[in-house]
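Could you join me in thinking about how sequence relates to backbone shape in a protein? We need material for that, and I hope you will provide a protein of your own picking. Label the sequence line and the structure token line clearly, so we can match residues to local backbone shapes. Would you write everything just below, so we can both look at the same thing?
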Amino acid sequence: MPVLCSKCGITVSSQVNNAKRIKRIGCICTGRFKYNTSNGRTILKQLVDNTRFSLVSSLKDIDLSRGCYSRIKLHCRECSTTVTAQVNALLPSSSGIGCFCARPDELQVRHALLNIINLWENGSTVDSQFKFFGELKGRLGKPFSADFAVFDPNMKLMLIVEVDGWYHFNENPKSRPADCNRSKEHDVLKENWCIDRGVFMVRISTAFVKCGIDAWYPAFFTAVNEAANEEANSICRITHDRCYTKGPYFDVRVGTALEVVDSPVVVE
């Protein structure tokens, strides 16, 4: 019999006894939906059309062999950024796709960074979601990325900027503990990568960004310019509290070349 799912709006043909065992019904919500079919690709196009995104690749060229876990490249029409997300991130039940619309703190920092390099008037550029040349990879082989990278006019990497949320500092977070632990682990690898290659890194906490641009922009402006002129520490951390100088973020760096010695920025 045809069964209409009230969550994803997909109608599937299913046996009557599957109505009692909802996980067996092949709609999108149950993860059993077959995107790698003509009908599945049509449904995917409808899902995309109902969002702020557009498909970067042609629908017929997308590899959907992993079903809802397949990755698709999407361009956000509102913040003009491109993300590679899993298909199930398009579902109404998803917490959202990670473009700048979903990360307003990073968007503020991006605007500030673009403003600073425009003042240089030397042709420097900013790359969002910079991949570490494929050298750094996580446990599943996915390349590490930084929030922003600044390149000089000759496309030499000058500076990396990271915007650090709460999960970089909490020892016992209430959600996603595995992700949080990996974030701290990856932070150390990224910082060592920068030091080994003579690339400067500026870190700023989202808690500081939420204080308002008048609070954090002067310190950020100074840090970026000093890094560009090679007058700063290899790793510069900007915040209004002691999140970088206490707790798990600090503990994993004690006794190493990454030991945090920065003075916190004080908001008047």
About this structure: Residues 68 and 88 are 5 Å apart (CA to CA). DSSP finds six helices and ten strands in the chain. The chain has three domains: 1-33, 35-96, 103-251.
